């Protein structure tokens, strides 16, 4: 990918995001604990379901020490209804490990973040980018779909080689600075959630449709 292609993609994407982004509580903070909670809750769970759980969970456990000192049963009780309960168990383990071994400081480096319980490549990139404004790539389902359709329709987004290729593309289109990367990563996720959806993508509303390798595939026939 040429630098010019990446720059045009970023410019159009960022302009769209500034006009159309949703006001979500985890976008109003840089607190790594709150970012981490939101990212774990959002895994395989719709935003509309997470909103209420997020607020209630933080009311009960407002910071990392409060979560670390809680009994496991209380943590599971607060998570009840969200499903995928391994997320809650890993979050509790993480809180205790960070409080005990890391002076209560959640790491900012994606490589170091991945050593914590339940933290994969995406979550590590998200915490580094959204909490610490580090220049870190991330690829979740929405991001993979956008990059797959726009730049690499021949890459299977769920396969090993295809997914690795999408991670490389995600790196290629990142802005130079971490602060700009915060907006960029939020924007590409938002595009996948609102416009470049899995079913019936709204190509007519897409800010990056010019140059998209898949737009003709979704055109009305």
TrEMBL record:
<dbReference type="GO" id="GO:0034039">
    <property type="term" value="F:8-oxo-7,8-dihydroguanine DNA N-glycosylase activity"/>
</dbReference>
<feature type="domain" description="HhH-GPD">
    <location>
        <begin position="41"/>
        <end position="194"/>
    </location>
</feature>
<dbReference type="Pfam" id="PF00730">
    <property type="entry name" value="HhH-GPD"/>
</dbReference>
<keyword id="KW-0234">DNA repair</keyword>
<keyword id="KW-0227">DNA damage</keyword>
<keyword id="KW-0479">Metal-binding</keyword>
<keyword id="KW-0004">4Fe-4S</keyword>
<dbReference type="InterPro" id="IPR011257">
    <property type="entry name" value="DNA_glycosylase"/>
</dbReference>
<dbReference type="InterPro" id="IPR023170">
    <property type="entry name" value="HhH_base_excis_C"/>
</dbReference>
<keyword id="KW-0411">Iron-sulfur</keyword>
<dbReference type="InterPro" id="IPR003651">
    <property type="entry name" value="Endonuclease3_FeS-loop_motif"/>
</dbReference>
<keyword id="KW-0378">Hydrolase</keyword>
<dbReference type="InterPro" id="IPR003265">
    <property type="entry name" value="HhH-GPD_domain"/>
</dbReference>
<dbReference type="InterPro" id="IPR004036">
    <property type="entry name" value="Endonuclease-III-like_CS2"/>
</dbReference>
<comment type="function">
    <text>Adenine glycosylase active on G-A mispairs. MutY also corrects error-prone DNA synthesis past GO lesions which are due to the oxidatively damaged form of guanine: 7,8-dihydro-8-oxoguanine (8-oxo-dGTP).</text>
</comment>
<dbReference type="GO" id="GO:0006298">
    <property type="term" value="P:mismatch repair"/>
</dbReference>
<dbReference type="GO" id="GO:0051539">
    <property type="term" value="F:4 iron, 4 sulfur cluster binding"/>
</dbReference>
<protein>
    <submittedName>
        <fullName>Putative adenine glycosylase</fullName>
        <ecNumber>3.2.2.-</ecNumber>
    </submittedName>
</protein>
<dbReference type="InterPro" id="IPR004035">
    <property type="entry name" value="Endouclease-III_FeS-bd_BS"/>
</dbReference>
<keyword id="KW-0326">Glycosidase</keyword>
<dbReference type="Pfam" id="PF10576">
    <property type="entry name" value="EndIII_4Fe-2S"/>
</dbReference>
<dbReference type="GO" id="GO:0035485">
    <property type="term" value="F:adenine/guanine mispair binding"/>
</dbReference>
<dbReference type="GO" id="GO:0006284">
    <property type="term" value="P:base-excision repair"/>
</dbReference>
<dbReference type="InterPro" id="IPR044298">
    <property type="entry name" value="MIG/MutY"/>
</dbReference>
<comment type="similarity">
    <text>Belongs to the Nth/MutY family.</text>
</comment>
<dbReference type="GO" id="GO:0032357">
    <property type="term" value="F:oxidized purine DNA binding"/>
</dbReference>
<keyword id="KW-0408">Iron</keyword>
<dbReference type="GO" id="GO:0000701">
    <property type="term" value="F:purine-specific mismatch base pair DNA N-glycosylase activity"/>
</dbReference>
<dbReference type="GO" id="GO:0046872">
    <property type="term" value="F:metal ion binding"/>
</dbReference>
